[in-house]
Each structure stands twice: as C-alpha cells, then as structure tokens.
Amino acid sequence: MESLRLIIEAAWENRSLLNENAAQEAIRMVVEHLDNGLLRVAEPHDDGWQVNDWVKKAVILYFPIQKMETIEVGPFEFHDKIALKRNFAAQGVRVVPHAIARYGSFLEKGVIMMPSYVNIGAWVGSGTMVDTWATVGSCAQIGRNVHLSGGVGIGGVLEPPQASPTIIEDDCFVGSRCIVVEGVRVRREAVLGANVVLTQSTHIIDVTGSEPVIYKGEVPERSVVIPGSYPKSFPAGTYNVNCALIIGKRKQSTDTKVSLNDALRDYSVAV
Question: Which pTM was predicted?
Fold first, then answer.
C-alpha cells in the first residue's frame, strides 16, 4: 500500500504523470481495493476516524483517466466513465431492481439495497438497509445495522481530500427524507426523525437540560433528533432558521431494536 500511496501522491502533485502507465495502474488498483473492501477512504479508530486522504485522491484522479463508454444492462443503457458493481450473489448482498452501486464502492455481506444508489468510494456495513430512493454519496461511510429510510440523502465529500466524509456509525436509524451532508458525523445508535437536515453549519441543539447545548457537525451517540427552528435576526427582521433538536437519548440498558422502539414510542418521532 505504501508504494501505491507514493505513486498517487506524486500524480496528485504532478498531473502530467496521469499519462504514464504506472500512475494509471496505481489509481485503478486503489479503486479495485475500494471495491473489494481492502481499502477504505476513512476508518474508525478508538479516538475517532482516520481519513485516508491519499485514497480519496485516487478516487478523484480516477475520473480523468477513465473514458466514457456505453454500459448495457438488459434493456437499459448508461453512458458513463465508471462501471457498475457486479457479482452481488457471491458477496451476499441483496439488490432489488432498480438499485445501483457503482464500481469502487463496497457493500459488506448482508447489505440490502432497495431501489437506491451507492456511489464510488462509499462503504456500507453488514446488516444495513439502504431503502427506496435513498442515496449514499461518494466516499460516505455507513456503519453496520443502519437503516437509511426512504428518500434519505447521504452526501458525498471528495474535495478537499483531507476533509472527513459523511459518516453514519453503527446501529443508527435515519428517518425518511433526512439529508446528512458536508462530512457530518452521526454517532452510534442515534435516531434521526423524518426530515432532519444536517450540514456543518446546522445547529444541533440538545434541549433535554435546563440550558440548550449546541453541537455542529456531529450528532452525539444514542441521540434522538427531530427537525426544529430557532429565531435569528437579519437586517430585514427576525426569521426562523432550521436546526435539529436532540429531545432525548436511547437507553443503554436495552438492546438496539428495543431501544429504537422505545425511542420512537417515547418521543413520538416521525420516521
């Protein structure tokens, strides 16, 4: 991997190297490793997530060395630079028509894709459901036993290369039509109610105590979150700005499924 990294870093600094076979082979090897799960754009560690920015650089460099081609799948036709992922049966992945996963993404055994989309560089963990019309953007990291409900949009982050991708950690539930973008991290076992929108600038406000606590870019573990708004003054007057409200926590004393049911029942969260 170190030799691959050195070649990728050199090509990133000097794009003329993209014309050489060695650079092209290294880039394609990295994307192949992403596709089979040997490499990840970001990896969990005890003290947080490590972003492998050189891997993300390889993904970015993959586009200019690829040529447009026609891809035929039965009666359907596509025209693109990147192939579709294949051999789902051998990988133990259920893919319902018209689900699409791009080559260079990785789906662990036990993933279920309803009609949905997973982009290059993304990693999706075992037991996760990518529900109807949900999208997983480039390089996004989706943990194990996650439910991405219908219409969820998980944003991709390619540039800058050192930026953390959007991350949904293990055992999270993301409600219908939620949008999580710009490298926001949703930590383990969190529950997002329907229509929650999270960007790096979104105020994520814990309203469970006597005083509000504001987070940005990260939802704490086991949080139960719903859409909200707060007043903000502008030259033209005071208007409500969208935010997300933490209204409670999933219980540590119960297992994930029971805790999820409790969260939805106790807080009447729409999903």
Answer: 0.93
CB 104, CB 17: distance < 8 Å: no
Condensed to tens digits (0 to 9), the pLDDT of residues 196-248 reads 999 999 999 999 999 999 999 999 999 999 999 999 999 999 999 999 999 99
CATH of 2-65, one of 3.65.10.10, 1.10.166.10, 2.40.50.1020, 3.40.50.300: 1.10.166.10
Statement: 86-267 belongs to CATH 3.30.390.10: no
Separation between Cα atoms, residue 45 and residue 55, nearest integer Å: 17
Roughly what angle, to the nearest 10 degrees, separates helices 21-35 and 53-65? 120
Query: What DSSP element (H or E) covers 239?
Result: strand 237-249
8-state DSSP, 150: T
Q: Do residues 266 and 248 make contact, with C-beta atoms less than 8 angstroms apart?
A: yes
